[in-house]
What we know:
The structure holds three protein chains of three kinds.
Chain A: H1 14-25, H2 36-46, H3 53-63, H4 67-76, E1 88-93, H5 96-114, E2 127-132, E3 144-146, E4 149-151, H6 157-174
Parallel strand pairs in A: 1-2
Antiparallel strand pairs in A: 1-3, 3-4
Helix pairs in contact in A: 1-2, 2-3, 3-4
Chain B: E1 2-5, E2 8-11, H1 18-25, E3 51-56, E4 69-70, E5 80-83, H2 88-103, H3 119-127, E6 144-145, E7 150-152, H4 162-170, E8 177-179, E9 186-188, H5 202-206, E10 212-214, E11 227-232, E12 241-247, E13 250-255, H6 270-274, E14 283-287, H7 295-298, H8 310-321
Parallel strand pairs in B: 1-5
Antiparallel strand pairs in B: 1-2, 3-4, 3-5, 6-7, 7-10, 8-9, 11-12, 11-14, 12-13
Chain C: H1 18-23, H2 28-35, H3 39-49, H4 61-66, E1 77-82, H5 91-98, H6 100-114, E2 118-123, H7 128-143, E3 148-151, E4 156-164, H8 174-181, E5 205-209, H9 210-222, H10 224-229, E6 231-232, E7 235-236, E8 238-245, E9 251-256, E10 259-260, H11 261-266, E11 280-284, E12 292-294, H12 295-299, E13 308-309, H13 311-314, H14 318-321, E14 329-334, H15 339-353, H16 359-376, H17 383-395, H18 403-427, H19 429-434
Parallel strand pairs in C: 1-2, 1-5, 2-4, 8-14
Antiparallel strand pairs in C: 3-4, 6-7, 8-9, 10-13, 11-12, 11-14
Helix pairs in contact in C: 2-6, 2-9, 3-6, 5-6, 6-9, 15-16, 15-18, 16-17, 16-18, 17-18
Amino acid sequence: MLAVKTNKPFNPSEEIQNQIRGVMDQYPEGKSKSALLPVLHIVQNENAGWLSVEAMDKVAELMNLRPIEVYEVATFYSMYNLKPVGKFLLEVCHTGPCAIMKGEWLIDYLKRKLKISIGETTSDGLFTLKTVECLGACGYAPMMQIGEYYYEHLNSEEKVDKLLEDFRMKGFNRN
Amino acid sequence: MKVTIDNIEIEVEAGTTIMNAARKVGGEIVPPAMCYYTSLKGSGGKCRACLVKVSQGSTADPRPMPKLVASCCTTVQEGMVVQNITSPEVLETRKGIVEFLLINHPLDCPICDQAGECDLQNFAFDHGRQKTRYDFERRTFDVINIGEDIKLHMTRCILCYRCTMVADQLTDGREHGILWRGDKSEISTYIQKAVENDFSGNMIDVCPVGALTDKHFRFRNRVWFLNPMDAHRDCKKCSGKVVLWMRGEEIYRVTGRKDQHAELKEFICNDCRFENYDTKNWTIEGPREIENESVINSNHYEEGTKALPKELFSKLNNEKWGDF
Amino acid sequence: MAKKILLEHIDKPGIKSYEVYRQQGGYNSVEKALREMKPADIVEEVKKSGLRGRGGAGFPTGMKWSFIDKKSGNLRYLVCNADESEPGTFKDRFLMEFIPHLLIEGMITSSIALESNLGFIYIRGEFRWIKTILENAIAEARAAGWLGHNILGTGYSLELVVHPGAGAYICGEETALLESLEGKRGLPRIKPPFPAVKGLYGNPTVVNNVETIAAVPWIINNGGDAYAKIGIGRSTGTKLISACGNINKPGVYEIELGLQVDEFLNSDEYCGGVLDGKMLKAVVAGGSSVPILPAELFFKTKKGEPRLMSYESLSDGGFESGTMLGSGGFIVYDEDQCIVRNTWNFTRFYHHESCGQCSPCREGTGWMEKVLHNLESGHGKLSDVDLLWDIQKKIDGNTICPLGDAAAWPVASAIRHFREEFEWHVEHPHDAQKRNYGLLKSTKEYFVASAI
Lengths: 175, 324, 452
C-alpha cells in the first residue's frame, strides 16, 4: 500500500504541542519514545481522523525520532488510519461472539443503508464503514464504535437508523 | 559446560547458544539458520528453522523441555541433551517451516540472482517436501529501487529482519523498516526514499534470499559461473577485505567474505562494494574456498546435497583457477 | 448468593467516585500495606492466597512477584495489562468502567509489594472513554493523597500512567505489551529473559491482568488464607466470567471458582439458559483461543463427573476432552450455529492479529483462514480437513509467543469434536452456502457474508 501524502504541512497548534510534550514527560527520562502511541492518537484526532505522511513526519520531528520509526508503528496498529476517513468512522465488530448475535446482519444492513462497501466513505463525507476485530463488548453484541464510545445492542433496523440519524445531525451541526 | 548434540558430546563456555555449540562441532548437526546472524545483535528466533528438541534440560533438571526451542537463542546448560537431525519431530516440524516460508515465496530461482547461494534454496532442498500443498494466490509486490545500488524484490522476502538490523547497527540512520503486520508485513521505506549510507550494501550480503540484490550485478551472470577471489585494498572506511566474483579479467561483483555458515566475517563499505570494478584497484590474494555448502561448491547438480570431499574440492578449485 | 469480592460494592450508587468508594472501605489496603506490612509480607499474603493470573495463563501471582529481581537495585515497574482483546472477554472493561478505584487501589498496593515507584496501565486503545475514567480516578486518588510524593508520610512515592494501545491483540502478550509501551511495534520478545528480570526499559517488571491486580486489596485486607478458603482446590478465590453468545442474560458475573458449569449456564442468577429455548451445541469456556467443547463434554468430563468452573475441572481430560478456564470469556453456541463458520471467523481474527514476526504464525494463520473459507463457502475438498489438522499442528508450540497456539487450538478442537460438520460442508456445497449443518428444522434465512 502506498503512503498518502497531502503536500500540506501539518502544523499542530501550540496547545496540541504542549499536550504532546505533557504526554512525553509522563515517561522516565530518556524514554520519551514511549509516548509515540498516545501522541499518534492525539495527532490523528487533530488531523481529521487520519495520519498523513506530513503528520507522521511532524511527530518524528517533535519526538526526535526517525520518520521510519513512526511509520513502522503507525502501520502496525489497526487504529491508525493512513488514508482519509469520513467525519464519523463506523468501526463494526465482526468477530465470532458478535457474528453469532447478528453482527453479520449489522454489517450487511449498514452497507445497504449507507450504500457503501467496507472501507468506503459515503459521498457526503460523513460516514466511513470499517470492520474491526473484537472490541471487547461481546455480551452486548452486535455493536460498533463511533469515535470515543461504543454503541451496543444494535440488533434492529430502528436502532441503527436512529443512531445514524443522530450522527448525521451532529455532522451537520458541526459544519 | 558439557552438552550433547545428536549424541556428540562437546564442551562449551557458559552462555553459548545451542546453535553455536553445534557450529563448533560442525557438519550435519548444525541447525539451519534463516534469520540468526552472529554479528547482528537481536537477530534470531524469528524464522523457527533452527528449532531443536531438548530431551534433557540439564543435569540438575533432567526434564525435557516441553516445546521445541529455537537453538539460536537458547543457551546451553550443563548436561543438556539436544536432538537435531536425530529427532523425527524436529525434521517433521522443519518440513512445515519450509512450507510456511515458501507459501509467499515466488520460487523464481531460475531468474533470481541469489540462486546458488540462497539460504532458503538450501534449506528447502535439505528439509522441504517435494510439492507444496498451498494452492492460493501468493502475495506479490513491485520491484523497487532503494537507493542507487540496491533493488528490493519484496515478493521474495522471508522477513528475517536482518537488513533492518544492519541499518540500525551499522549505519548512521535507518531509512527502511518493517511496515504493516502479520503476513502483510513488508520491508519498505514507506515514502519513496533512497537508502544511502556507507554500509548499506551489507544488507545485500546478509539477506538470506534474493530480496535485496546488487543492482550492478542483476541478471549479468549466475554465481556458479563466477570465480570467487579473495582480494583486498586499502580502505579508510572498512577493512577492505572482500571477495571479487570474476569471470576472466572482469569483476562482476564485490561482496564481503562469508564463512561456512554464510555469515559475513567483516562488513565492507559501499566504496569497496560498488565503486571498484577494476582489478587494478585490488590486490588479489587467490581463489576463495567457498565453505558454505551450496551449489557453488558442488558445482554440479548430482544427487544428494553433500558437499564434495574436501580434497576433491580443493583439487577441482585448483584446476579451475589453473589458467587464471 | 455467592461470595463477591471484586463486585462486592458494584451496586452502590456512585461507586465510580472516590468518595463512595472510600466509604466502602476503599484504599484501606494501601494504608495497611504501608503502615503495617513489609513488602515481603504483602508478597507472602498473595502467595498464600493462591491467586492465579486472571489474564488467561493462570500463573500463580505471588510466585510471579517473587521472581522479580530486587537485588540488582534497578528500578522496578508494575504494568497492568488492560489490553483486553480476546474474543469473548469483556470483564476487565467492566471493572475499569464501573469500579475504577478498585484497580487503582490494587495498583498502589501491588506497587508497594514490588517496591516500584512508577506503574503503567496499558489499556487497549479502543477503550477511549475508560482511559478518561481511569485518569480521573488517578487524579482523585492523588488529590486524596494515595498517589504522588511521600504517600501518607511514609516516604513511599508512586506515580501511575495510563498508556493507550492502538489496536493490536498481540499487545496482550506481556512482552509485546512492553515493546508497545516503549513506543515500538508490538512484537513479542524472545524469552528468556523474562520480564521479571528484564522487562520495561530493560528493568525488572511485573505484568499482571486487571482482574488479578483488583483482587489484591481484598487479599491484603482479609489475608491470603481467607482468600484461599474461597474456591476449590488450587483454583482459589472468585473469577469474573464474561458470558456472551446465545444466552438469555449475557454479561459479567463474579463466580466462586468451583461452581458447576450447568448452574452457571442454566440458572437465572447467571446466564439464564440458552436463548429462545434452543438446544446447546457447544461452548467456548475461556475466550476464543481455548478449545471448543460440544455440549456433552462441556457438562460432564470424560469420566462422567460434572464439570466445574475451575482451572482444573475445565482442563480435565487435556485437549482430548477438556478445555481451559482461560480469561473467562464464555461463549455459548446454540444448535443453529455453524462450527465451521465460527472456526473460520476465529482464524481470520488470529490471521489479522498475527504480528508477523515468526514464520509459522505469520504464514500458517493466513493459510488456515483461506482453507477454512473455502470449506465454509462450499469450495472445500475432503483432504482440506486433514490439511488443516496438519497446519495447526505445525504452528502449535513452534512460535515465539502463545498467539500461534491460540490460533491452532480452536481449529484443532473444532476438527476433533465436529469433524462430520466439516465434511458435511464439502459434501453439500450448495447447502453450505445457504444454510448450516444442523439447521434443517430452522426456517430462518441464514445470512452468508461475502468473503473479505
